[in-house]
From TrEMBL:
The keyword NAD applies. This is Glutamine-dependent NAD(+) synthetase. ATP binds at G373, I374, S375, G376, G377, L378, D379, S380, T487. L-glutamine binds at Y134, S211, R217.
Amino acid sequence: MTPVPDPTRFHDLYAQGFLRVAACTAPVVLADPHANARAVIEQATECAADGVGLAVFPELGLVGYTISDLLLQQSLLDTTEQALADLAAASASLLPVLVVGAPLRQGGALYNCAVVIHRGRILGAVPKSYRPNYREFYEARTSASGIGLAGQTIAIAGDTVPFGTDLLFAATDLRDFVLHVEICEDLWVAQPPSGAGALAGATVLANPSASPITIGRADTRTLLCRAQSSRCLAAYVYAAAGEGESTTDLAWDGQVGIYEAGDILAESGRFPTGPSRATADIDLMRLAQERLRMTTFIENARATPPAAPFRRIGFTLDPPIADLGLRRPLERFPFVPSDPARLASDCYEAYAIQVSGLVQRLRATATKRVVIGISGGLDSTQALIVAARAFDRLGLPRSDILAWTMPGFATSGETKANAWALMDALGVRAAELDIRPSAELMLRMIDHPAGSGAPVYDTTFENVQAGLRTDYLFRLANHHQALVLGTGDLSEIALGWSTYGVGDHMSHYNVNSGVPKTLIQHLIRWVAEGDLYSPEVGDILRRILATEISPELVPAGADGAVQSTEAKIGPYALQDFTLFHVLRHGFGPARIAFLAEHAWSDPAAGRWPQGIAPDARRGYDLAEIRHWLGVFVERYFGFSQFKRSAMPNGPKVSHGGSLSPRGDWRAPSDGNAALWRAELAAIPES
Ligand SMILES: Nc1ncnc2c1ncn2[C@@H]1O[C@H](COP(=O)(O)OP(=O)(O)OC[C@H]2O[C@@H]([n+]3cccc(C(=O)O)c3)[C@H](O)[C@@H]2O)[C@@H](O)[C@H]1O
Ligand SMILES: Nc1ncnc2c1ncn2[C@@H]1O[C@H](COP(=O)(O)OP(=O)(O)OP(=O)(O)O)[C@@H](O)[C@H]1O
Ligand SMILES: NC(=O)CC[C@H](N)C(=O)O
């Protein structure tokens, strides 16, 4: 099944390129394969009802990891095979691919294996490569290593199935679901077998484990799973043994977890009583996209060919066609973490990146002054507090930050007062330059009706003001040997919401170009709350945060309503959501609408970032999401690239990406939006 924007399957996570997986653990009955197989069937049945496509169980889970020499008992080994046959038969009507641990004989040796079973078939058995035989472990006494075993088969209860460390299990009907299996210690070595599996195309790495618990070991496991999923650009599904394992000398905590490209998707509670599992939806499309982008992944695959080519075992998953929801962490604001500690750390880094970008440019050019237009809005405020810190760091007086507030036809008393208060409180050199006379002259000279007082407030009327401000700033920069500091943020650059060339699009250096609008308010709040300047500056910053975002280019209407940016180009909350997923993941409109609906439709669900007032916590339904996605598609793909192709320098800030044509995003200035428009049209209304 290829994720396509099929309107009838829009709400179906499998059609959208996700795979629901479960990492399971259950009390084991030592040396009783039938009892343990029954416990697996019980969980597998629940998993199937939950839409799970892959369920991973612990190492040697059919017999218990801690049975030591009992592993070599003939009765145990024969019964294990029967239990596997029973398990395979019981799986016939179940959705998930099952990965279970069992000891198996082949070619005169015993192997600690992961057996992969699906819909009545044993698809294959993978032996453990690295058997720990140090400290508390004695595996070499009972089992042989699977290292180098390739191209072989194994007999299980009369059935002959592929056997070796050269196996990948690939769904024929779910794009990019390719499974590799390794066993516990295999993850602890410098080059885990799953590395080769991933380079050969596996996107999902399973690890049935039996890892005795000692203080701190759980953290090590999480570290290893996250790191392996990160360097393999894969999902890692880890399930450790728990209750029932022998406590003769050790204890067991049943840790299970699901990781994806370094992220923790789900972890269950440790030391559970009874069966327990973690379930999460793996984003196969994201993993495939990450690999496409990170071209060193495939280079690494070529540089390190596997000892033997991997065999691909095909199977048909036949996932349900249904709305199963979406079970994975999903930020409403991909640029603004909902975890307060993470947000604080992101703000620290973003601010430090902006400051260091400007410090280097001033140092390299031996420039001792900047000029900047201060509107009292968010962007110029942020640029000014970045400049102030950069000047402090360079030991330059803040009085050499030359700030102008430049009222135009729609400047409100409130924003102008905020602009003045901020400039004064920061101790920069503040001045006012009324652009209206020049603007009136220009409008008259170009025969614009507004030049003779007619209320024609079109784009030209707006751009005359934005253009004149920029013109003044550049000439002031010449006059004072200064740099013009840009203020336009990443979201405006994405949407082309600036006046080209002779306008706020241009500057000598733009400290905000890597910062999305949804993050800027948090950066300003972080500076205010952290008292990075004086309490007075903090109060002014809070006042600025409370003002509606408006370009203030068109006079307020008769009802006093100010020109609202978001009413025109869409809520920045949604546009930044789309921007992140387009830029970082290359997702199309159908995928983004699916994610946005899960992130945004219910304001009561999930966490909000700190600092967003309860009455501002609104939701968006699919129809609204579709509408604003349409605006994004037209402006981003269809219109604004010519502005980005000529944008000034400025530092990349977010891992989401930058839009510099020299940095992160290159695209033709004469492209079109047809492809995305067509996909958008296939998104259902609800
Ligand atoms: N692909 C392409 N290659 C080369 N040139 C291209 C082009 N597509 C259009 N153009 C030309 O570009 C011009 C249109 O671009 P441009 O002059 O920028 O004007 P435009 O993008 O039409 O308008 C600027 C908008 O940004 C808003 N704005 C301005 C300033 C600040 C803020 C803010 O809130 O921060 C918002 C303003 O309210 C206005 O609605 C046209 O003359 C068109 O012919
Ligand atoms: N009244 C003004 N006085 C001085 N500069 C201004 C004024 N209005 C706009 N500017 C300059 O033009 C930039 C773009 O202005 P605009 O208000 O249209 O959009 P913005 O991106 O929302 O910026 P801000 O949040 O700083 O207002 C501002 O950041 C500022 O540098
Ligand atoms: N069963 C195993 O392979 C366990 C080994 C692993 N090093 C651990 O401590 O968890």
